[in-house]
Amino acid sequence: MVGPFGGTTAAQLLQAALLHPERLGEPVALTVNFAAPVADGEIRFLARPVRTNRSTQHWIIEAHQAEDLVATATAVFAVRRETWSDVEAVMPANVPEPDAVPRMPVKGMPAWPQRYDMRFVEGAFPAAFDEQEQAHSRSTLWVRDEPERALDFASLAALSDSFFPRIYIRRRRRAMIGTVSLTTYFHADSALLAQVGTRHVLGVAKALNYRHGYFDQTGELWSPEGQLLASTHQLVYFKD
Amino acid sequence: MVGPFGGTTAAQLLQAALLHPERLGEPVALTVNFAAPVADGEIRFLARPVRTNRSTQHWIIEAHQAEDLVATATAVFAVRRETWSDVEAVMPANVPEPDAVPRMPVKGMPAWPQRYDMRFVEGAFPAAFDEQEQAHSRSTLWVRDEPERALDFASLAALSDSFFPRIYIRRRRRAMIGTVSLTTYFHADSALLAQVGTRHVLGVAKALNYRHGYFDQTGELWSPEGQLLASTHQLVYFKD
Known about the structure:
alpha+beta; ten-stranded antiparallel β-sheet
């Protein structure tokens, strides 16, 4: 992969707005564009509220290293009200409990998967790149932070980027990849996040289209009780 | 709806980067955040290439009216290469040809649907708000610009916002709505757009989750030959 785990950068960009003294409400949408690989060393975040309305607030957030812009983000925050609510997406049925699914071995993996407890029900990361192309790239897994940690907006933003690039699941062969743009919609508010606490959430992911060096994938993160916490989409560069 | 058709604003924001003398390649990702309703009158667009790499370019684009910021956008442009390509999303099957589907009557509708020729196969805009709640909000339709016009990136960006808000299809009742954030991934390059020309494209759209004043919907735009031209996602404010 080109550069380190983008989920960390996404979480830091969002956190820069969350910690800002002028922040209104809670995040409902976040888009991160990864402009360059983040290097080891100092990174500075600049969060600007560019428009504040009565119940919504728009942000532009930048990440810099030395003189270089390495990532940009936009975010929308909002003060929510109770309304009619319903979920139309379908949570996978008949999924075994997290305790009944073995944790993915992380020995020898990069640092970032070691910071997650992932339990794949379907579409695991291939144990070997045997080049046996699969019919689809769908994955279903239980996932939580490792060590465990109560879910908050920053960790939910990072989890949105924790789905392995679909091209590895689909083609089971090496490819150079890098996420170029990541969008997450937060359906959960802080009260719902608190209900989830440190438990696993159910992730599902699939690709839509691969073409001429870019593919997109889409994911959902569900609470154990069947609330859609976030939906997330990303465009990924690849070189085969 | 709060404000005019966001698709026009999205197209204009993208066009500001497309027309910029420093532009590299073609758009692959666009996110628009709608900060305030666009009013009749002058609107100014400021497009800045914030990072240019060898084959990708990152943009921040703003739209202003008088002293007010009314929309922000980020875009990623890229020079594409030929690679392994495949589509995983499934185009609806057994859809009748556009000529076999009647055009949606637009008399009495706002200006923007009058600028489209929409032919609904499934999930049409309700002829009356009879409050008969539907099981889902899925729509399938043939759509093209009216008057007809060859497809380009600007019109594809606008088409991405041409799916009626899903809450109207689902609940068949009035609600105040406004898109707050719109993300589109362009799978088509200009060669593929030229193949489509002025013909209809097939649109599909559905909602994922409605909760506490916001819902998200996702859409696909397909060429008649079954190429996924763009996938698009948006978060919508609603008040019931």
